[in-house]
Structure prediction request, 347 residues.
Amino acid sequence: MSQLPKQPAEVSVPTSADVARLAGVSRATVSYVLNNNATVRISEPTRRRVREAALQLGYVPHAAARSLRAGHSRMVLLPSGHIPAGPLHQYFFEELQSGLRRLDYTVVQYGSVGLTADEAATAWAELRPVAVVVPPGIALTPHGTGILTRSGAKAVITLGPGPVAGAHGLVAGAHGLVMDQRQVGASAVEHLLARGRRHIGVVMPQEPGRAPFSEPRLVGARGVAEPAGARVCPLPLRYEEESAHRLAARWPELGLDAVFAYNDEYAMLLMRALQDAGVAVPADTAVIGADDSLIGRLLRPRLSTVRMELAMPQPLAETIDRMVQHPGGPPVHQDLLRTSAVHRESS
Prediction:
């Protein structure tokens, strides 16, 4: 007669009471220590003993129970969006996440592909985050912001290449952080004008998700060029060698003496195609990119670029924590981006 295999015994989940017994303290002390409660004075040896006991037992605080005690969650939601892979955005999100973790927040990333603006906001609200940081490429309407705030979000922050409706106080609790991409195009063209160039191409990447960044850069380029009597010509380009070679083959008819190539990657792609087509850089055409990547400095000629830096009065994680601790204040609007052109051999 066959026998059913033995089922594994139910694993006992360690509790705060187990940690308290092992550490020789009260459950309240365990809660204070593991929740980083700074309002209660507990000696460092006791804190260390509690943490060691929790580690030995494999105890993890229950997020939902902690949220009930606090009256809100400690979850900060980062919906995923179409953010161009660049050093500045990567640095921004790494600093944001590490800063929030130091402040004892749980950072959760959420995929929002295929959802409408209000569907996305509803899906985020189901998780009851205490704050939401909405990246570029994801629409946020005043209605969606209202859904989030009514579900308990104490801070809804939009991060984008330009101002958006939801970040202008149309709904209480909405804040806006802007990396104004017009500054990038303006810095690039100011540099080219200073080098005596007057017929300037501006590369417009054709890949998905680039338009929210490339279009403001074009606006910034035009805003500087037109008052100086210079011409700006948008140049559609895919990030492909064939596309770059087709564009380079048309260069004589375009009559351009300079190009702002969106970023360093597109600049390197186009510069190689121009050189292959017999266009001398910078003698015939000056080239400038953006991002100040290391590989751009290794090219021959070395690539001129626009350097982008974050300028914030305090780390964003601390700003979010202040919004959570003191909700209902006036909307925060900050322009985070500072740009400067770096002159090298390509221009």
